[in-house]
Fold this sequence. Notes:
This protein is α+β, with helices and mostly antiparallel strands. It is 29% helix and 25% strand. The protein is globular and about 65 Å long.
Amino acid sequence: MDVAAHQARLWQLIAAQPWATRSPRPIRDALRDGFMACPRHLFLQRFRPQLEAEPRTITARTLARHLPVIYVDAPLVYGPGDPPGRPTATSAQPSVVRHLLELPTATCSQPSFVLHLLELLDPQPGQRILEIGSGGGWIAGILGHAVGATGAITGIEVLHALAAASRASLAHCALANVTIVTGDGAAVALAGGPFDRILVSAGAGTVPRIWFDALSDGGLLLVPLTVPGGGEEVYLLRRVGDRLCSEDALPAWFVPLVGAAATAAPLDPATMPDLARLLSSRPTTRLPAWFGGAGAPFFTARTMAFRSFLYKTEPGLRAIAQPAPAATAFGLLNRTLTSLAICRPDTIEGHGTRIMIDRLTRAYCRWTGHFMPPGVAFALTIDFADTRRRRATGRWHWRLDKITRRD
């Protein structure tokens, strides 16, 4: 059993991935050394591959059997189950189908993607770095090596058992400069700051002021922002005085952040009678729509660019829960629940008054008129200068050429 050989083979795969070549420079030696010094299997006492239904438990006796599964360039799930408040699949379904429908609580992310994000974060020796949603501690360990003995890493993990397991894993790697705290990273006091870098390792619904206040001027915040309906866009934001300004962005998929910065759940017609009545009414308009493919398969992925465009240009965008196994629908809904435009596979439907269907079709024409840009084509600025009301977040400004939306 040669762990180093497995690591070396995985590193060769990582170096050949697009993530490694997209950066203006290759992944730095300090991150490679951190990757080799923090063997992935030490942070995976209990896990499952994405296409397996049952979790695996690593022991000294079974480790050799699991190494070929662990040292692959793919995400691994920390055990079974759903985050608090998330819908679960029904027990009547086969286990393989159930686990594909469930949302994992936490993952050990795809190694090549992790290292690309860490290269974007640009960790330097001696820096203080905060990771929110530190999970099993693997990323925190790699960063601990990158910043060296004069630097410090603080990880915050909301799941108590996972936080405890990560502390044990980090101790096994003899990393004295990494501290793991249990709590909600968007609600607890962030000791150890100000931080030179902040990394958020789960999909967030907002950027709370507490993160801005914890970031030093000139520091970098790397945060996956969830698009309503599914999927994330990772934004690299630099603090410049009272603002956060984007410097890079890329699409991604993350597990959802739990706590005060979590993404709002889709609207559920089962708990909203007015919405249920609106949805059950006869459509006033039904139009064909093209989202890069036909039918329900991969509807969430195919609509990512348009949903992101709506998210950044139309404040009425809502995700709407649908009965399983249908994908979450999305559309524009007015505040009085009298007008709804909803996107389903291959069609756009209008219910109630025409206000929202007209707005959505105009937005669709704007999106196609700009050659269907991906969401990451937008630049983002978040202004925290409003100190009078101490807003929970700043004022968001999205910009794409001549299209601008301010919240």
